[in-house]
Write a structure and sequence with these properties.
The protein is of the alpha/beta class. It has 8 helices and 19 strands. Strands 1, 2, 3, 10 and 11 form a 5-stranded parallel beta sheet that branches. Strands 4-7-9-8-12 form a 5-stranded mixed beta sheet, with helices on one face. The longest helix has 20 residues. 43% of the residues are buried.
Length: 425
């Protein structure tokens, strides 16, 4: 379970929020129960699982190297495979438990509950998935419902499934276990042709066309808008340069828009496990993170997981009456090369900042490539400077007087400026 975040970590922390609406960005992924039938991935097979597991680990490593944010949403078949092949119930270093311990990564359930015979058969509902993730050693509770049907669709006949979870529900396979989400994410539709695509945070009033986008302060479930689905996906055929252009142009559009004081933007770049084995896929993820890094450092966005983004909103807006909603139709998504000035991509050289131990107690050591660090700054998540050390000598930096919680550590030398999140115990 992550420490609640008041404002997501980024190079400029939260200092830019008064000048522009906050924009929180994260990678997200899921797999499907029909991966075996339609994509040849049999997670029950040790060899197939090992391939996907190692590739998912490599993506996690890229996320950690760039101090990005990643929401991994596995289905029951992958969770069961983790339990089977990695002995996740007793192994503290299985993929899912290891990943969820990282401040930059959160593990949430993704579910297509179906008792219909066929490739989509799945006797596990969301409560069952929460139970399985608990069994992998993840610290409960899971907060996010990673995908749902947002309204009834008559053709084909598909019914909404989120209002049931406004109260705690028992598992189907594990009926002795009950679970209730706090956050709705990913309002979908048959074939994803009528998904509810929006930015913002609100409490949906009803599972109807008019009601889902209306805020009802008495509803218990918060919906986090995840942006525009089809424009921001990494597949086996994705051109990373064009994808990065779309992200950057959208960030610039948001930055230059006329928004109310409570404007709030959070969106994801989606991945699917079925694409991981395609040649060069992990490299694409790393290349995208590299291309976005200068814009993070310039304050265009901050990396934050879904839970962190909602926590940031709720810290600033404790009233359930407060909400913000902006549709994808309000933006022009362009793959053209950005025309922004002041950012030198060619000279950008990212060397991951390493902080250890992490979590830290009274001291830390830092490493950022071969060049000596010239200045180190420690910020809280409101963007307040807690400690600055100029020309630090190699060795321990005493931080015993810093407050407990998540701290943004920024290191600078003549080649780069980079940041990482640290947990202070």
């Amino acid at each position: 379970m992550k420490i609640p975040v008041l404002c997501a970590a980024g190079l400029l922390a939260c200092n830019f929020l008064s000048a522009q609406p906050p924009v929180y960005l994260y990678l997200a992924s899921h797999n499907e129960t029909n991966d075996r039938s339609f994509h040849g991935l049999d997670y029950d097979n040790a060899a197939d699982y090992a391939v996907i597991r190692d590739l998912a680990q490599a993506i996690c490593d890229s996320v950690l190297a760039y101090d990005a944010a990643y929401v991994m949403m596995p289905e029951s078949n992958f969770i069961n495979a983790c339990l089977k092949h990695e002995n996740a119930h007793t192994n503290p270093e299985d993929l899912l438990q290891w990943a969820d311990k990282q401040p930059q990564i959160e593990i949430e359930p993704h579910n297509h509950f179906s008792l219909t015979a066929g490739p989509g058969y799945n006797p596990y509902n969301y409560a069952d998935l929460a139970y399985l993730l608990d069994s992998c050693g993840l610290t409960p509770p899971r907060k996010l419902m990673g995908g749902f049907i947002w309204r009834n669709f008559n053709s084909p006949s598909v019914t909404e499934d989120w209002t049931l979870w406004q109260t705690p529900q028992p598992g189907h396979t594990f009926p002795g276990y009950t679970w209730q989400p706090q956050i709705l994410w990913g309002g979908g539709s048959p074939g994803h042709v009528d998904d509810f695509e929006a930015f913002g945070v609100w409490r949906p009033a009803a599972p109807t066309i008019a009601g889902f986008g209306a805020n009802d302060p008495d509803q218990p479930l918060v919906c986090l808008g995840n942006g525009c689905n089809n424009e921001f996906i990494i597949t086996d055929t994705t051109n990373v340069e064009l994808l990065a252009n779309r992200v950057i142009n959208l960030l610039d559009d948001i930055r230059n828009g006329a928004w109310p004081p409570d404007a709030f933007f959070s969106f994801k770049i989606m991945m699917n496990f079925r694409h991981l084995p395609s040649p060069g896929y992990v490299d694409k993820v790393g290349e995208l993170l590299r291309r976005l890094q200068p814009y993070r450092e310039a304050g265009y966005f901050v990396w934050a997981t879904a839970e962190e983004a909602v926590a940031a909103w709720q810290d600033l807006h404790p009233s359930t009456d407060d909400h913000f909603l902006a549709g994808c139709g309000d933006f022009t998504i362009s793959s053209d090369a950005p025309t922004l000035t002041g950012l030198n991509h060619d000279l950008y050289n990212h060397v991951p900042l390493k902080v250890f131990p992490n979590p830290a107690g009274d001291w830390v050591r830092l490493q950022a490539g071969s060049e000596p660090i010239e200045r180190i700054r420690f910020y809280d998540l409101f963007g307040r400077l807690l400690l600055q050390v100029n020309d630090p000598e190699s060795g321990e930096i005493r931080i015993g007087n810093l407050p407990s919680g998540i701290i943004v550590v920024i290191a600078e030398n003549r080649l780069q400026k980079t940041a990482v999140r640290m947990i202070k115990e």
